[in-house]
Specification:
Distance between the termini: 33 Å
Helix content: 25-40%
Order of helices and strands: HHHEEEEEHHEEHEH
Number of strands: 8
């Protein structure tokens, strides 16, 4: 992750673009990330990460390799989630996996989540003030609902790659999601996103 992100951060620095601070800066990083192709998410995203963790903390962004406990009964799941954890459980956590939204919805939700930043430094320590109560309490977060997933720690197959806040907008649009069905086959991202849009419109 460090190599991909460093190149974009250096290019932005040359243009005096400061990550996360303004909407125009966020849009610049998202457009750049959208043009990147990732063939091997595990190698590119996990192994090259600058910061690998053994546990998650609420409000930070992580990615990792995951195999669900009941994968044989799920219509699809994401092997490489991009998650903001917001609720701890005895065996793991609940998180918002942004990969379940198409890019326009993803950007809208992320722009609103930025309003929950606990500081405006946008560095390694910046996190979101997330909870079920906060997410349920405002219509501006309504797109989060199709993204909520429960993750079990003993089904995480790599360490957690921590993504610092100045790289959120790059990770947000990088195409490293891999949706898999119950038979182990690939599911198109478009199909997953259509399902999420239907849930949003039904208010689920």
């Amino acid at each position: 992750m460090a190599n991909l992100f460093t190149e974009l951060l250096e290019e932005a620095s040359q243009k005096n673009i400061i990550p996360a601070r303004t909407l125009s800066a966020r849009e610049w990083f998202r457009e750049k990330a959208e043009d990147i192709t990732i063939k091997d998410p595990k190698s590119t995203i996990i192994r090259t990460s600058a910061s690998l963790q053994t546990r998650t903390l609420n409000g930070f962004m992580y990615t990792y390799l995951y195999r669900p406990k009941y994968q044989d009964t799920l219509p699809f799941h994401d092997r490489f989630p991009l998650v903001f954890p917001f609720k701890r459980t005895k065996l793991g956590f609940y998180g918002i996996n942004l990969h379940y939204l198409p890019l326009p919805y993803r950007a809208i939700l992320m722009d609103n989540l930025y309003k929950l930043s606990m500081d405006k430094n946008y560095d390694d320590e910046t996190r979101l003030r997330l909870s079920s109560t906060i997410l349920e309490g405002s219509a501006r977060f309504r797109y989060y609902k199709p993204c909520v997933r429960q993750y079990l720690n003993n089904h995480v197959q790599t360490k957690f790659a921590l993504i610092p806040s100045n790289q959120w907008d790059i990770a947000l649009f990088l195409p490293f999601e891999r949706f898999i069905n119950e038979a182990g086959g690939r599911v198109s991202t478009q199909k997953v996103h259509r399902d999420s849009i239907k849930k949003i419109r039904r208010g689920i």
